[in-house]
Each structure stands twice: as structure tokens, then as C-alpha cells.
Amino acid sequence: MTRYDPDEPTARVSAHEVEVPGAPEDVWRAIATGPGIGTWFVPAEVEEREGGRIVTHHGPFGNSEGVVTAWEPPHRFAYEERDWDPDHPDAPPWATELLVEARHGGTCVVRLVSGFFADGAGWEEHLEGTDEGWRGALGCLRLALTHFPGQRATQLLVFGAVADRSPDDVARELLTSLGLAAATVGDRVELDAGAPPTTGTVVDVAPRTVTLHVERPSPGVLEIGTFDYGGTTVAVRGPLFGDGGAGAADREAPRWTTWLGGHLPGFTPMA
């Protein structure tokens, strides 16, 4: 099934919406092209046509390949990933659909649905954590279109595992070490004193993550926190924009890896 039907009884999905600045054509470039997806989700390549190939790159978690099932600029983009879990060749396809609707005042609403559009009964556990991930990604989309419209980005991606403690416990340790445990939206942040130098403003606080709109090490967005993916995963990630973004991502990733290893007992980098 290539179009999401909310009345389909076997559908099991994660659904979200976000209002973003820009005309539908601008938003379309962000959600349906490789360079655009790389500004808010993960690095990607898209063959811009129905039936085209889409590949998303998830760092140490590998690549995911799919097929574009809807290409209706500037309003509807959808794709299916059929081999999303090599251990379960019988799994239903993982489908993702994004809809763009113009609003008065120069904004658009982006509606995203991702998961099993049909035959999802019994596969619910594979959706765990999906809400948290898409919520953060769409928040990043809003920030990218607000502060960096039309710009390309390089993703800073640092991941690691902590085997003996819960994501909640490790998040408290991580954010306390950085002075972010009591962060609130609007706070100015200056990370120095051993942490990779980072300057920015808190734009979102979730139960296990803090998201910054940063000026240093390069203009962009940085999410710092933990999530549950087969155990506790620590993440420092986000798009860095401008001419210095690629160099900053290359420079800062090993700094963050070293810092995390020195401040979170049991931290194991994921390459």
C-alpha cells in the first residue's frame, strides 16, 4: 500500500506534523531531494521520480534503500523500504509519506506518516522509538527552513553504546556533565571546560535530549542525548551549514567521541 489510509485496521504507524516557513516549492526541496533530506534527517540520495531509488545513510546503523512510490511535487512524496530488516524477510514494507499543505502567511504544514501502512499487526515492537526520532527530525526541519533555507548541510554524527544503564540514566549523566540537565528553551549555552567548544541557544528539550541552534563550531543544529535502540545509544548529531560545515563536522566528531569516552563510564563508540 503506497498511500496511507487511516481507516486501514492493520496499519501501525508513527504520525506527526510540523508547521514550517516557506513556499510549498521550498519545502518540497527540503523533504524530497537528497541534499534537502540531509539538512534535517540523514544524508540521502533520491532519484527524483516515481519508481526512483532512495538511499538514506544512518552512520553505524548502515544504509537503508527504498523505492519512491509517490512523486507529486510540491505536495506528496512517499517511499517504501522493503528490506528494512534483513533478519525478517517476511516483514511488511516500511512506508513513509510526507504531505505539504500551504498555509496563509508564507508557511506550510508538513504531515509525515511512517511505518506499516498495512499488515502491521504483530510488528508493533519495531515502531518503538520511531515517534521520538521523527519528532526530533521534524523539529530540525523547522529549524533548517527557518534559519538556513536553501543551504546544504553536512551531518555531524557521533554514536556510542552504554550497555549497563538505561537511556534515562545515561541521559541524566550526559546532560549533567555538560551543564544541560536543567536547560530550558531560550537558554544560551557555552560549552567549554573540556567539552568540544559549542555556542548556541536551546530550542527544544525532550525527556532525554537537548537540541541547540548553534553558531559554534559552525552554524547549524545539534541534538545531544540518548535513545533506546536495542539498548542505550548516546547521540550527538545534527546538520552543520555553510562553507565551514563539512570541516567542522570532520573536526568535531572525534572530539565528541573522546569527550564521551572520558565522561560516560562504559561508553563504546559506534563506528
Describe this structure in words.
- This protein is an alpha+beta fold and 271 residues long.
- 23% of the residues lie in helices and 39% in strands.
- It has five helices and 14 strands.
- The strands form two sheets. A seven-stranded antiparallel beta sheet has the order 1-7-6-5-4-3-2. Strands 9-10-11-12-13-8-14 form a seven-stranded antiparallel beta sheet, with helices on both faces.
- The mean pLDDT is 95.
Features:
single chain; seven-stranded antiparallel beta sheet; alpha+beta; 271 residues; globular
Strand-helix topology:
Layout: E1 12-21, H1 24-32, H2 34-37, E2 44-46, E3 53-57, E4 63-72, E5 76-81, E6 94-103, E7 107-116, H3 130-147, E8 153-162, H4 167-177, E9 188-191, E10 198-205, E11 209-216, E12 220-228, E13 232-241, H5 245-263, E14 267-269
Antiparallel strand pairs: 1-7, 2-3, 3-4, 4-5, 5-6, 6-7, 8-13, 8-14, 9-10, 10-11, 11-12, 12-13
Poorly predicted runs are none
Helix proportion: 10-25%
What string gives the helices and strands in order? EHHEEEEEEHEHEEEEEHE
| Whole-angstrom Rg | 18 Å
Characterize the overall form.
globular
Mean of pLDDT: 95
Query: β content, as a range?
Result: 35-45%
Q: Which sequence of strands runs across the widest sheet?
A: 1-7-6-5-4-3-2
Number of helices: 5
The number of strands is: 14
* Structural class assignment: alpha+beta
In terms of quaternary structure, the protein is single chain
Main sheet?
7 strands, antiparallel
How many angstroms separate the termini?
35 Å
